[in-house]
Amino acid sequence: LDKYQVFVPPPKCLQKTFVAPQRHMFGPGPSNVPPRILAAGAEPIIGHMHPEMLEIMSDIKSGIQYAFQTRNNMTIAVSGTGHTAMECAIFNAVEPGEGVLTAVNGIWGERAAEMAERIGARVNSIVTSAGGYFTNEEIDQALTKHKPVLFFLTHGESSTGVVHPLDGIGDICHKHNCLCLVDCVASMGGVPLYMDKQGIDILYSGSQKVLNAPPGTAPISFSERACQKVFNRKTKPVSFFLDMTWLANYWGCDGKPARIYHHTAPVSAFYSLRESLAILAEQGLENSWQRHKEVAEYFHEGLETMGLKLFVKDKNARLPTVTTIVAPPGYDWKEITSYIMKNHNLEISGGLGPSVGQVLRVGLMGGNSSKASVDMVLEALRDALRYCHKSKV
Ligand code: PMP
Predict the structure, then answer these.
(1) How confident is the model at residue 393 (pLDDT cuts 50, 70, 90)?
(2) Do both 271 and 312 map to the same domain?
(3) Which of 114, 158, 208, 242 to mutate to test ligand 1, by most ligand atoms within 8 A of the CB atom?
(4) What does DSSP assign to residue 259?
(5) Model pTM score
């Protein structure tokens, strides 16, 4: 016994079994994972280079091509969350000293700017108020002025509840010899999006929103034009883990017969991701887009009937997946979200970045996008406004 003496005792807390509570996950993410996807993640582990695994990765690639509406060969899932894909895009597309322009109408443009700064890019931003978006003319002018190699735009701004129009922006970027990078973490599957037709060069998403898979994998795709830049760099990207030269081989996108070990794939996470993409394919992307729109409109009407105000004034710019509600005056928003969690077992959240203190955010994504969920949220809000108001008087 003395031979293997330990000095840090086994922690008492680990003696308790953990059972995750069942909650309505109606915040901006993660969303509820349906039993079919959870079950897929509970399948036995196989080797990350076994033939079945390579087939799963190939299926995932096809599923992402469908969800992104692209025929790009360079389409993979990054092992990591949305932020990982964001860094993968920026780290591979930009070399130190090159120019990046980010569109900031919420937190994601700010974060993209910070990531680009960290790798020594010359970063400029165009900024508009939370709840707003940019016209194509504004983008065109900024590109003329700053001449970046990469332009970053968020399609579904989950911190403000804005869906950014995309038509024409890819062409404008190309006119300026600039790559168009779009974040669709919060919009993919819930809002029409056509990577190829809209001329998007790099597009990434996440698993835990409309796809209803667990957090931890992130779809990303590179156009031919993006590949020209990414695979003709003078310097290596700062991250080994996110180097697309390695990842392209790992995902069988580089045409080479041998796959070289790069990292151990999160096997169970890939099972779940594959299943979530299978469900999207079964249901049909168009149907998913339409359902998210109809459910959001039903929700927004319900909110306005209750006397609540929507944060995004322009109806067409309201993101169907994540709704921002003006924080009701006279109430403490934290009290509302806590009350709803405690009494309705339901998560909604406050603002993020520039919208902190200004809004409540409700995400209805994938399987959670239903009129039944809307009714539940409206009831919870009605109850909270009654209770929280009384407590203030
Ligand atoms: N972009 C957007 C638009 C998002 O909504 C999120 C997640 N809230 C992210 C990026 C980052 O994703 P993750 O939290 O998975 O890293």
Answers:
(1) very low
(2) no
(3) 158
(4) P
(5) 0.97
